[in-house]
Amino acid sequence: MKNFIYADKFFMKYGIEEKGYLSIIDGKFGKFQKEKPDVNDNIIDYSGKYIAPGLVDTHIHGLLNADVMDNTFEAINTISKGLLKYGVTSFLPTTLTDSIETLSESIENISNNYKKVEGAKIQGIFLEGPFFTEKHKGAQNEKYFKDPEINVLKKWQEKSGNLIKKIAIAPEREGAVEFTKYATKNNISIALGHSSSTFEQAEKVVNSGAKIFVHTYNGMSPLNHREPGMVGAAMALKDTYAELICDGHHVSPIAAKIMMDIKSRDNIALITDCMRAGAMPDGEYILGKFDVNVKNGVARLSSGSLAGSVLTMNNAIKNVIDWNIATLEEAIKMASYVPALSCNINDVCGCIDQGMDADFIVIDNNLNVHETYINGVCKYKSDK
Q1: Cα–Cα distance between 6 and 23 in angstroms, integer?
Q2: For residue 200, pLDDT beyond 90
Q3: Cα–Cα–Cα angle for 192, 197, 198, rounded to 5 degrees
Q4: What local confidence, expressed as pLDDT, does residue 289 receive?
Q5: Taking the chain, what is the end-to-end CA distance rounded to the nearest angstrom?
Q6: Residues 90, 80: contact at Cβ < 8 Å?
Q7: What is the 3-state secondary structure (H, E, C) of the chain?
Q8: Would you tell me the crossing angle of helices 100-113 and 73-83 to the nearest 10 degrees?
Q9: What is the pLDDT of residues 256-277, one digit of tens each?
Q10: Which residues make Cβ contacts (< 8 Å) with residue 271, sequence separation at least 6?
């Protein structure tokens, strides 16, 4: 079946197209054309609206009081369906540090059910831990911290059916270099975080294949003029990607701009790090085994540490534009193509290009999400 989408603006992989027609053929993107097609009844008119690629959240723990670590189909399906409202069409369910056994159960639950979810597509798994260190633990449970083990990753990847796309480690842990080389060789992106690493330790692991910094600035050794630390490594090391949580609480707009200016916006991946309180009212929640209080849109442990966020991807885009640190085109790219590229899933999501799955969103100039499409079919429509 072939349809055409008309809109005022299209955010294509190669750049912006103004007023034209994008064909959708059997759930895939076809060609863009300026001239009106012959058949009127196959044209969906979004005059006054923009068409952007579906957003890609590569670091999300939960939403709507569901958490990936609930280890049920209902939980990941709730997250999947809930994400459509916020323009997300692909995501990596993200685990927390826990026992090897519990993480194995979580991996098995996702791998057994990822094709069954009814909303945003699960494009892989992100394992956030357990290979971290204590000083910058954040909301990760230090009881289960350990050195990275290749044999454990092998078992997990076998259990997942090669669904693990990203795993985070602290570069100062013993065996980090060998672990990174193995993971990279097997198409798993190594991310660095929850670490008190020196610049040199981070550099060594990046030179072995690591390429992502986990929620940059947060949960890592800071930049100091005598010891650049992990933040300095994120700034200085080429061909790496920096995740940023742009909710206005985790990172100041100025710090976000500095990172974007240094690395270029082609190397910034907007993420949410959203926990189960996302899209829920303020109150008391659980993250892993920790009690979390959410007040005025900020999630904190009793110690005062931030415990993930309640940010949504559409609001991350709005924020960086409102802060005047990115253009609309740059913001959309940082929330779609760059995250996908960082995790080696850019062949299946993250852009509007001929032959790709027709996963896209209909937005207005105020960045409100009006509709969300999966495989060329509208799966969410705003009632506004």
Answers
A1: 9
A2: yes
A3: 125
A4: 86
A5: 29
A6: no
A7: CEEEEEEEEEEECCEEEEEEEEEEECCEEEEEECCCCCCHHHEEEEEEEEEEECEEEEEECEECCEEHHHCCHHHHHHHHHHHHHHCEEEEEEEECCCCHHHHHHHHHHHHHHCCCCCCCEECCEEEEEEECCCCCCCCCCHHHCCCCCHHHHHHHHHHHCCCEEEEEECCCCCCHHHHHHHHHHCCCEEEECCECCCHHHHHHHHCCCCCEECCCCCCECCCCCCCCHHHHHHHHCCCCEEEEECCCCCCCHHHHHHHHHHHCHHHEEEECCECCCCCCCCEEEEECCEEEEEECCEEECCCCCECCECCCHHHHHHHHHHCCCCCHHHHHHHCCHHHHHHCCCCCCCCCCCCCCECCEEEECCCCCEEEEEECCEEEEECCC
A8: 60
A9: 999 999 999 999 999 999 999 9
A10: 57, 58, 59, 60, 215, 243, 244, 245, 316, 339
Residue 287 near residue 276, CB atoms below 8 Å? yes
Token duo for residue 116: 């069954």
Name the token pair of 335.
């929330």
Asked if pLDDT for residue 381 goes beyond 90, the answer is yes
Amino acid code (one letter) for 217: Y
User: Please, are residues 328 and 10 in contact by the beta-carbon 8 Å criterion?
Assistant: no
Placement of tokens 């910058």 in the chain: 136
Full-model pTM: 0.97
* Model confidence band, residue 38 (pLDDT cutoffs 50, 70, 90): confident
Q: How many residues are present in the chain?
A: 384
Active site residue 261: no
Nearest-angstrom CA–CA distance, 268 and 381: 29
pLDDT at 22 (0 to 100)? 97
Check 273, 353, 364, 383 and give the catalytic one: 273
